[in-house]
UniProtKB/TrEMBL annotation:
Record-annotated membrane-spanning stretches: none
SMART domains: VWA (SM00327)
Keywords from the named record: Signal
Signal peptide residues on this chain, from the entry's feature table: 1-22
Cited Pfam families: VWA (PF00092)
VWFA domain ranges (all copies): 58-253
InterPro entries the UniProt entry points to: VWF_A (IPR002035), vWFA_dom_sf (IPR036465)
Official protein name in the record: von Willebrand factor type A domain-containing protein
Amino acid sequence: MRFTNSVASCLIAALWVTPSLITVTQADEITIKIETKESTSPDEAKSSPFSGQRATVDVAILLDTSSSMDGLINQARSQLWNIVQEFMKAKKAGKTPLLRVAVMEYGNSGLPATEDYIRQVVPMTDDLDKVSEGLFALSTNGGDEYCGSVIKESLKRLDWSTEPGGYKAIFIAGNEPFDQGSVDYKAACKNAIQQGVVVNTIHCGNRNAGVRGHWKEGADLAEGKFMNIDQDERVVHIKAPQDKIIIELNAQLNKTYLWYGKAEKRQAYQMNQARQDSNAGGSGGLSSRAKIKSSSIYRNVGRDLVDTFEESQDAVKDLDESKLPESLKSLSPEQRVAEIQRLSKLRTEIKSKLAEASKQRDAFVQAEQKKLAESSGETFGDAFSAAVSEQLQQAGFQQSQ
């Protein structure tokens, strides 16, 4: 492989700018594009959307964080990794898509009224650990819920891909009427679909109330799906015999990461990966998270040297030594590549074992679910996954079981 339209200095910059802003194309040639604004630091540099053979998937999650929505937030946290599995199963032209997720909150009285009580929690990013971190940092308060406004702002603020052949969707969840606020929800939804962004609405509460509150109309206007859930339904995670080995393999997998960047960045990446493992474990979803980490949907190109090496072997040959992990600093360039190759092979082996254990666990869980006599209400994750599965197929993706 070789780089085109790049110089050596760009290689170094491309590996330590903000991770979600790195653009890598996976084709016969690898290209890293960096666009910097005047007077911005490299960490604030912004790149154009991904351009390559792997289709893009951009999803914005807009959550009502008013005082009545604690149950919704808990469902989103505990079901994140189950939701991501829908994208893990998707293929276009035989390749897993490049998934980016953004999170915005609205309706929280602790946010500025001048901004319609809206906040961008996580920008559009491929760093799924950052998404999990953002969800676990949310709190509820207040409020005034303006759906039209948050949809409009998500279209304006987020770095949506312009690539053809992908999937772009908004999932907005809440319980108050959809037509509140000064921004016309009809115009916002029409504008979304004109930009190729589907709007799915999830009403927390009675379906008829959601219809009367214009949640269905909002989805219809943007060619999305209208759903209703019980935000207070407890998410049940079934324990399986395979959980122990999955947790052990996950710990082994973490040891294969070689985080790259300034010392504080490397430490932050490592600590956040471990923290999100802990968050998932606390809500019963560590096995689901580990399954995602065994797949190509969980990627840290530009942050981790092993993932970056797998995208482009050339990209790790000329590195800024001060930004290398400590384990590589004393090695020669050739020895560094050899160590990265060793960890890449080890990671592949661990991922294979994780995938097999996860497959066995899925079979066990499905069998146990059939034994459950009680029917539970639909949750955020249930609604999200059902819509994604259907819409990915409509967008030309094939989905494996």
